[in-house]
Amino acid sequence: MKNTNIQEGIILIPDFNGFTEFVFNTKLYIGEYVITQLLSTLMESNNQYFSISEIEGDAILFYKYDKNPSYIKMNKILQKMRESFNKRIGELSRELSITINLSLKFIIHYGKFSQYHIGNFKKLYGTTIVEAHQFLKNNYAEQPSYALFSHSFLDRNVDFKVNADELYLSEVGGIQYFEKANQPI
């Protein structure tokens, strides 16, 4: 049996650091409101460049079929998402008179994956998806707010140049650190 649904593309997972503590230390209705607002902000700031496979808790699994991904374009998207996220945290903190200690990390990976349907749901499948999720639980990042660009993503880019602000690790790829979400950009 041959699957003609297999394509190459980008996997992007924005994930909140500090989520577990936030859930345990915030009233249920306030926490739900804040997380809904922040996830919606990330979805809107994506400008429909990526499709959404699923949302689970504090993470969104975005994907885009693309044989020629652009590092420069990806950085612009991440910057817009971070700025929107940080701005919304500031607004929500003022609106609710609470401190929101959440920061944002991104996993950017590239590879082959397929898509299947179960009822009304579209699910992604493949080692690329599993690898992207494994990158979320890494011991490489030393700061809570960062973007991890996998080797497979960096290797596919024609516009990638070494950046002095990034840390390169032979095990995974490049890590670009950001400031904490509640600090101004």
UniProtKB/TrEMBL annotation:
Protein name in the entry: DUF2652 domain-containing protein
Pfam families on file: DUF2652
InterPro entries reported for this sequence: Uncharacterised_Rv2561
